[in-house]
Each structure stands twice: as structure tokens, then as C-alpha cells.
């Protein structure tokens, strides 16, 4: 039988080993919390969103405009049950899916939504406004938030963020965030081609494209100066293939090819501008999202996503309805939105938004993250 003294000698190395192991584990845990490359420290601390209804998560609910979607059947397929949040969709938008995929909350909150505060916005925030555009006059058509005001809200957000997390942490969140920008469609369909602002008399369509691209360049310069470093910028979709435009083109049938050509011309100019901006601002990375190709691929080959209707929206007749015309009184709204590309006559379904979000993320991992 071993002596008590012998037991004490044997236990000393074990005690030291246990203490060393605990110290090592403690150090590892501390390093994991402070190391930005560790899984516990998100590579992207926040998703910050600018633009129009394609990414507006509810800001228009809080302003005096008729362009709203905070009522049924909007939001009917949200996870957890029907919830019309002000998103122009039956569910979530691309920034929501992007946020969730990056390990952040599954919904990006609207900056003007009183249900959220700076503790929420520290992980993601949306300044977008349905109906807005690169041209200030576009926002005036339906009294929505102009792009310059979105930038002002961003400045205010930065001040609030500094007070909430401190200057250094706020700077890191702003510089490491992923910025999602989707804007431009309304400048043509709600402004120039609708003949309501006078821009059609002031500019040829080519000159108007140049004007919008210059506005986009100004915007990117502004947010870069304010700290943005990683930005996704969406080009125009084939806007002549939206259900509303197909309806207006009913005499000829199909997509309105003249509008699609404008979208292609504008997108080419945007690409040239982005190359120029990144050359002049080496710390700014911008990934161009080819929405035109992504959308056209699905319209041409709908079965790849299990779609059955790419010409009409699910809501009401799907030909002209959006906002208040897309309501729960219509007997024609479809039962399964997952079979449709469009939710209303202008906006994609949640299923298509998730597809677009994946395309965006794939590009982000290649070029930004």
C-alpha cells in the first residue's frame, strides 16, 4: 500500500497539468473571442442596405406615401406565420437571406421602424425606400425617401452606433459591413418613361442614363468617405419583362424590348463607372450584381427553380396590381407563390429573392469576403 506522502507526490504533477490545461483552454477561449478570424467573431458584422422596393424592409411604413405594403397578403409566407412588414413580397427580401447566411439575424430591420433600436441596427440596418431612385425627382413622384436622405440617415446611424459601442467598434462595424445597393428601376419606369417629371424633355434616354450613372458615382463616393469598403451594386433587370410592362405592351405581346435595351445600355455604363471608381479608390471594393442575366436565365429556363409562371404576378390578376391594388380582397391571388417568379406586377417572390441572394453571396465570396 502506497504511503500518503507518495500519493501527495504523485498528485502534484497532475495538479500542475490540470492547471496548465485549464490555463491553455482559458487562453484559447479568450483568443477566440478577440480574433476576428475565429468563428465566434463574424467576418461580416452587419449588412447595411440602400435602395428601393427591391430591398426596402419597411421604411415606407413610417412616411407619408401611398406606396406601402404593410397589409395582407404581403408577407403571407413569412417564417413563423403571415406578417406584412412593409416588404414588397410574400416573404423575405435578398438582404434578409444574405444576413442570415452570414450568421446575422434573418431579418434586416428598417431604420425607421420604431420596433428596433441601435442594438439591432449594430448587426444590420436598411435605409432603402420603395419608389426611390438615383434621381431626386424620382423620389418626389410618390413622396418617398430620396437617396441623399438615405445617406443622411446613414450619417445619423454612425453617430448613434458610436454612442452605443464606442468609436473603435463602430468604425470596425462600418468598415467590415457588407453594403447592399439596389436602385435604378424607378428612375426609368416611374420617372423618365412615365413622363411625369419633365426629365424626358430635359434628356435623351442616353443622356439620362449618363446622369443616373453620375448620381450612382456620387453615392458610392459618399458612402466610401463615410467608411464603406465592401459594396454590392445591382444592375437593372430586364425591366421590359416585368408583368406590368408586359401588360402595357399587350398589343405586341411579350417583353418590351426597347426597355430591355435601355437596361443593357445603362448596365454597361454602370460597369465602366465601377471600374473607374475602384481605380480611384483602391480601398473600395464593389461587386457588380448582374441582375439582368440572373433574371433572364430564370425567365428563359423557369424549371431550374421549379417555376411555372414567369409572366404574371401571384397577387390578384398579376398583370397590373401592386401596393394597395394587391390586397386580400382579390379572389384571384394564387395559392402557391413558389410557382411564380413575381409576387405582384413588379416584385419577385420570396423564392426568387432567395435565389438572387445566393447569386449575390456567391459573388461576394469571390470578390469581397
Structure keywords:
alpha/beta, 13 helices
Question: How would you characterize the overall build of this protein?
Answer:
With 369 residues, the protein is of the alpha/beta class. Helix content is 46%, strand content 8%. The chain contains 13 helices and 7 strands. The strands form 2 sheets. It has a 5-stranded parallel β-sheet, sandwiched between helices. The chain has a two-stranded parallel sheet with strand order 6-7. Residues 1-41 have low confidence and may be disordered.
Rg, alpha carbons? 25 Å
Count of extended strands: 7
Q: What is the first-to-last residue Cα distance?
A: 64 Å
Main structural class: alpha/beta
User: Counting H and I runs of at least 4 residues, what is the number of helices?
Assistant: 13
Q: Kindly report the average pLDDT value.
A: 90
Work out the helicity level. Answer: 40-55%
Strand-residue fraction?
5-15%
Major sheet: order of its strands?
2-1-3-4-5
Which shape, going by the Cα principal axes?
Answer: globular
The topology string of helices and strands comes to HEHHEHHHEHHHEHHEHEEH
Spans of at least 5 consecutive residues whose pLDDT stays below 50 are 1-41
Described by strand count, sense and barrel closure, the largest sheet is: 5 strands, parallel
Amino acid at each position: 500500500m502506497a504511503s500518503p506522502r507518495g500519493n501527495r507526490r504523485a498528485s502534484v504533477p497532475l495538479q500542475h497539468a490540470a492547471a496548465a490545461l485549464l490555463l491553455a483552454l482559458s487562453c484559447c477561449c479568450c483568443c477566440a473571442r478577440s480574433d476576428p478570424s475565429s468563428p465566434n467573431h463574424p467576418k461580416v458584422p452587419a449588412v447595411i442596405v440602400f435602395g428601393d422596393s427591391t430591398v426596402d424592409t419597411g421604411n415606407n411604413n413610417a412616411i407619408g406615401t401611398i406606396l406601402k405594403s404593410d397589409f395582407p397578403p404581403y408577407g403571407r409566407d413569412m417564417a413563423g406565420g403571415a406578417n406584412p412588414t412593409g416588404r414588397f413580397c410574400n416573404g423575405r427580401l435578398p438582404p434578409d437571406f444574405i444576413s442570415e447566411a452570414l450568421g446575422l439575424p434573418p431579418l434586416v430591420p428598417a431604420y425607421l421602424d420604431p420596433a428596433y433600436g441601435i442594438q439591432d441596427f449594430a448587426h444590420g440596418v436598411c435605409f432603402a425606400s420603395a419608389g426611390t431612385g438615383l434621381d431626386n425627382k424620382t423620389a418626389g413622384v410618390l413622396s418617398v425617401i430620396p437617396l441623399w436622405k438615405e445617406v443622411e440617415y446613414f450619417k445619423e446611424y454612425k453617430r448613434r452606433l458610436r454612442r452605443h459601442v464606442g468609436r473603435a467598434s463602430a468604425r470596425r462595424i462600418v468598415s467590415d459591413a457588407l453594403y447592399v445597393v439596389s436602385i435604378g428601376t424607378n428612375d426609368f419606369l416611374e420617372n423618365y418613361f412615365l413622363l411625369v417629371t419633365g426629365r424626358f424633355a430635359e434628356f435623351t434616354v442616353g443622356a439620362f442614363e449618363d446622369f443616373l450613372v453620375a448620381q450612382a458615382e456620387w453615392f458610392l463616393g459618399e458612402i466610401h468617405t463615410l467608411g464603406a469598403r465592401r459594396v454590392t451594386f445591382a444592375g437593372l433587370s430586364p425591366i421590359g419583362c416585368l408583368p406590368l410592362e408586359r401588360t402595357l405592351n399587350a398589343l405586341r405581346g411579350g417583353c418590351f424590348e426597347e426597355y430591355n435595351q435601355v437596361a443593357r445600355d445603362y448596365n454597361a455604363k454602370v460597369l465602366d463607372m465601377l471600374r473607374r471608381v475602384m481605380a480611384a479608390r483602391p480601398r473600395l471594393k464593389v461587386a457588380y450584381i448582374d441582375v439582368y442575366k440572373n433574371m433572364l436565365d430564370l425567365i428563359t429556363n423557369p424549371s431550374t427553380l421549379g417555376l411555372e409562371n414567369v409572366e404574371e404576378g401571384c397577387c390578384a390578376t398579376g398583370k397590373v396590381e401592386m401596393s394597395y391594388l394587391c390586397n386580400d380582397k382579390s379572389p384571384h391571388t394564387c395559392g402557391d407563390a413558389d410557382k411564380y417568379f413575381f409576387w405582384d406586377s413588379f416584385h419577385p417572390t420570396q423564392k426568387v429573392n432567395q435565389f438572387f441572394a445566393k447569386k449575390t453571396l456567391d459573388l461576394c465570396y469571390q470578390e469581397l469576403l
